[in-house]
Amino acid sequence: MRRITIVSDFFANEINGGAELVDAEVASLLIKDGKEVYKIKSSALTESYIKEHLSDFYIVSNFVTMSERAKKFLKQTDYVIYEHDHKYLRTRDPSPFEDFKAPDSQIINKDFYSNAIAVLCQSKKHAEVVESNLKTGNIVNLGCSLWSSQEMDLLEKHLDTPKNERYAIIDSDNHVKGKYEAIKYCEKNGLQYDLIATSTYEDFISTLGQYRGIVFLPQVLETFSRVAVEARVLKCQLLTNKNIGASYEKWFKLKGRELLDMVRAKKFEVYKTLSSFIDGKRIEKSQIEGDITVILNMYRRPQNMGMQIKAIKDQTVKPKQVWMWVNQHEDNKKVDKKQFDVDRVFDNNHNWKFYGRFAAALLADTEYVAIFDDDTVPGEKWFENCLSTMETTPGILGSAGVTLEDNIYVKHQRCGWPTKNEQTERVDLVGHAWFFKREWLAHLWREKPFTWDNGEDIQFSYLAQKYGGIQTYCPPHPASDTSLHGSTLGNELGIDSKATSNNNEVGHQQFFTERDLCVQNAIRNGWSTVKEVKL
Questions:
Q1: Distance between CA atoms of 376 and 356, rounded to whole angstroms?
Q2: Count of domains in the chain?
Q3: Is residue 104 part of a domain?
Q4: Global pTM?
Q5: Domain presence at residue 183
Q6: Domain identity same for 155 and 136
Q7: CA gap 395, 386 in Å, rounded
């Protein structure tokens, strides 16, 4: 059975807030349903934890304290975001903007939301506002918040509490709760009021139930507002503004026992919706099929294969086939290759190094081929980005571009995911992820490689230019949208002892000396570089 990990900034044993109470009830329902549940604070969620628990299903609640590195790695797992406010905005508040639509400059965490299986919102209005700002197509309206059985029993206990003639105002110093605005409203309209504390849930409900009404004027758009619903269950008059998410639901006109019964019923509908995503339901995003064969490379990082395949399958342009090329190594010898959801497996008893996968690509029967290094996980719009780039600047495309400044390889400039380029740039060679027309592969084999041990990226760009007049480009890799990037975890996955340029099997100096010789061989035989480097 799949384990569930709930991630949040705080839990109910630390803060008695609405989000924390909902998270506690989610955990309780999952456990009652026989699920194994683990809780971890956002600040404690690490890359190593996620790598060790890639098969977990993650429910991400509040995540303000989560590191950007953890967000990157979570995108390789199955997760939903249980949204309690508006963490896609820098201010976490859409209310100052017309129709709650914030300018693009205010949007943050878009990739993190987009990559979620679903973003679970708590009211129709909440869902509408999130979708209008993010346009990710994975927004779900749960239609209600969650109360525990004990909380609902307490509400029922105070359904018919006799009322006084005064109004309650929540005594909170949190400015978003609008205490001072509520006080001004009461004084302006001659309403007698009391400030009531929220020390414990039982004390709050028993106290609120005694009042004729409550004046609650939140200063931000409340995703739901549990207190507004509780007031109506307790038959209190609710004086409020348009910032109550629950007020946009059709059932909000109910009150008393009728409303409480609805809340009880909704609880199971909400849980059923959440469970459906845990059990495998997916929101169908718009996806077209491209004439693309993908070749992934398994060598010394087999642990990355699952997240690579997921990223490929999640592309907005779906490839026709996904192949896996396996170079022999002790690190993947005991790996069960049948576990991976791919169409073809080339399981070799020899390490063909860099050129083997390009030889396999000759067997593809599609217009395009996409090849990925084993440390490369693309954003969901990478193929879309490549096809768009092909329309204006057809050529060999890649996620990490290199422009030589001299005939010594180490003297170069980079673009793509390492430095972020807003526009397409012509480069001398690309790596980490290649995208090209299958017919161009013929040029790679027109000359025997200078060495079979290195430089396939140099050789391909050199020979495609020499024999086909084909240039090499790095498509846009904007800093603001990593869904377009050919590699989203380059620093996290690529800089380790298993990198060919940084391991014990091939000396660092030997590796770069070989690349120098490959560059010089190409220039000597007719390669025209961007900066016209000469020997």
A1: 18
A2: 3
A3: yes
A4: 0.73
A5: yes
A6: no
A7: 10
In a domain, 532, yes or no: no
Residue 165 phi/psi, 5° resolution?
Answer: -100, 15
Q: What is the DSSP string of 455-493?
A: -HHHHHHHHHHHHH---EEE----TT-GGG-S-SSHHHH
Same domain? 132 vs 161:
no
The reply to whether 399 and 435 lie within a common domain is yes
User: What does residue 326 show for φ and ψ, rounded to 5 degrees?
Assistant: -115, 115
Tens place of pLDDT per residue across the chain (535 aa): 899 999 999 999 998 888 999 999 999 999 999 999 999 999 999 999 998 999 999 999 999 999 999 998 998 899 999 999 999 999 999 999 999 999 999 999 998 999 999 999 999 999 999 999 998 889 999 999 999 999 999 999 999 999 999 999 999 988 889 999 999 999 999 999 999 987 789 999 999 999 999 999 999 999 999 999 999 999 999 999 999 999 999 899 999 999 999 999 999 999 999 999 999 988 877 778 899 999 999 998 888 898 899 899 989 999 999 999 999 999 888 888 888 889 999 999 999 999 999 999 999 999 999 999 999 999 999 999 999 999 999 999 999 999 999 999 989 999 999 999 999 999 999 999 999 999 999 999 999 999 999 999 999 999 999 999 999 999 999 988 899 999 998 888 856 555 555 454 556 688 889 999 999 999 999 999 999 999 8
* Residues 243 and 307 both lie in one domain: no
For residue 118, what are the β-bridge partners? 80
Print the domain residue range for 240.
Answer: 149-255
Residue 308 and residue 232 share a domain: no
Beta bridge partners of residue 324, listed in sequence order: 296, 345
The SS3 of residue 513 is helix
Amino acid of residue 412? H
CATH for 248: 3.40.50
Residues 16/19/23/26 CA torsion (nearest 10 deg): 120
